Amino acid sequence: MNDSVLIKKGSEIELKVESLAFGGMGLAKIDDFVVFVKNGIPGQRVNAFIYKKKKGFAEARVTKIIDESPYVAESKCGHYWICSKLQSLSYDQQLKEKEKQVEDAFQRLGGFSDFKLDNIRGAKQIYNYRNKMEFTFSPHRWILESEPEGVDSSFALGLHIPGRYDKILDVDECHIQPEIGNKILSIAKDVCLNNRELKPYDPKTNVGFLRYLMLRFGVKTDQLMVNIVTAYDDINKLSPLIDTLLKDVPEITSMVNNVNTRKADVAYGEFENLIYGNQYIEEKIGELKFEISANSFFQTNSYQGEVLYEEIKKAANLKGDEIVYDLYCGTGSIALYLARHVKEVYGFEVIRSSLENAEKNSVINKIDNAHFLKANLDTFFKSRQLPRKVPKPDIVIVDPPRAGMHPDMSGYLHKLKADKIIYVSCNPTTQARDVQILSDNGYNIKNAVMVDMFPHTPHIEMVMLLSK
Ligand SMILES: C[S@@+](CC[C@H](N)C(=O)[O-])C[C@H]1O[C@@H](n2cnc3c(N)ncnc32)[C@H](O)[C@@H]1O
Q: Is 354 a pocket residue for ligand 1 (Cβ < 6 Å)?
């Protein structure tokens, strides 16, 4: 009998968790039938309750740990099983699990059966590294199993429960952000709980005021931005929060209020009120200085950002006379990092404010051979929008968002005839798909490096060199 027939929804079975699947669930197999194990970590033998059974896989929840994992490590986080189970694995094992996930994506989804990573650049600083945090205000606090029935759940300031858009886990501290972030979190909560006017916004009913508390840290410059995102414009109402934060946290160098009246669950405001200091903070990567405003994209780990950009530079192996394209350039940090080592670099990006930051950052760093173009890269090249004066590239760097490249872009890229393509990605599954297309068009994988930008979280960053 097929083993999957023995696995029934509602039954309890014994499983050995073998690895961590992309996204963070434990993965166990019964012969070839895959069971994703919620709360299971690699190396554990567990009893698990099957709550979902589909044709090709099942999902189960741990009911009892029979044998603990040899890779288990004590987590600093009081909610690690909700936020990221990776935190309960030793850092070495976290890297091994991510390595397996990347190799699995390229071997299985991309069809590169011999694929192996050439290098893994683990982080030296595995706590207090994140330079941006976005905490959500909510009138719907997630109630923990340990809490008594009927407990007040009408206020939370914290993080989204994975897979749930409607509930927020209230957090007192988060160890991946700098310590000062925890102090700000605690002050903000205290002020809001003691002021009836400062009500959290409810996206279901479109009622309430406070939406997000966003913090940006210049971890290399000691600058600190607080961005309070509200559902409407009312600075007077915000004043108890503003005054207390400015009085008790002298480290704040910038405070802004983004106003987002739309229902969309995003921290981007329709407009921004400057409350204190500058409308941006400065941060450094290598020798370069960047001005970052509240809504600009910037790598969230400044320490490993430098390692990432060095890996890109290494893959590019520059002589000094190259024309380089930086596609999906954001605020232009890759382009600017390479500019001094190439003839000319062209950044392409769809968000206008990011391009403005990129232009400004070239001026601040006295770089005059970096040019930035507004482009929707889904269709830009295929529909021949590239201005004639832009020379053909020797090297193309692509760093698309998680969804990867649009098929019209990945299918067109080889027509640019670059000697090298360097594919930077925060999602190995979409990267594997896109690289398969590049490989069908004559580009082969020459080198693949994983840079861990996100210790204790399931996120992965890759730098891959391809050439003909
Ligand atoms: C992962 S970020 C790149 C960050 C940048 N390379 C850096 O290191 O700071 C992806 C960027 O792609 C941009 N983007 C997303 N879709 C795009 C599109 N269709 N055309 C152009 N840019 C796009 C986003 O605005 C974002 O800045």
A: yes
Q: What distance in angstroms lies between residue 327's CA and the mean position of ligand 1's atoms?
A: 7
**What whole-number distance in Å separates Cα of residue 257 and Cα of residue 275?**
7
Strands 288-293 and 280-285 come out as antiparallel
Alpha-carbon span 48 to 35, nearest angstrom? 10
Give 112's DSSP letter. Answer: -
What is the spatial order of strands in the sheet that 323-327 belongs to? 119-121, 444-451, 462-467, 420-425, 395-398, 323-327, 344-349, 370-374
- Ligand 1 pocket member 372 (CB < 6 A): no
* Nearest C-alpha neighbor of 438 from the set 383, 398, 401: 398
> pTM for the whole thing?
0.91
> Residue 353 CA to chain centroid, in angstroms?
20
Q: Is the CB of 139 under 6 A from ligand 1?
A: no
CA 451 – CA 82 distance, rounded (Å): 24
Query: pLDDT by residue for the chain (468 residues), tens digit each?
Result: 455 556 889 999 999 999 998 777 899 999 889 999 988 999 999 999 999 999 889 999 999 999 999 999 988 888 887 888 788 899 999 999 999 999 999 999 999 999 999 999 999 999 999 999 999 999 999 998 888 888 899 999 999 987 777 899 999 999 999 999 999 999 999 999 999 899 999 999 999 999 999 999 999 999 999 999 999 999 999 999 999 999 999 999 999 999 999 877 666 678 999 999 999 999 999 999 999 989 888 999 999 999 999 999 999 999 999 999 999 999 999 999 999 999 999 999 998 888 998 999 999 999 999 999 999 999 999 999 999 999 999 999 999 999 999 999 999 999 999 999 999 999 999 999 999 999 999 999 999 999 999 999 989 999 999 999
Give the distance from CA 295 to its chain's centroid.
15
Domains of the chain by range and CATH?
3-72 (2.40.50.140), 132-285 (2.40.50.1070), 301-467 (3.40.50.150)
Q: Which atom of ligand 1 is nearest to the CA of 297?
A: 27
Q: Which residues are 227's β-sheet partners?
A: 214, 256
Residue 384 tokens, joined:
């021949």
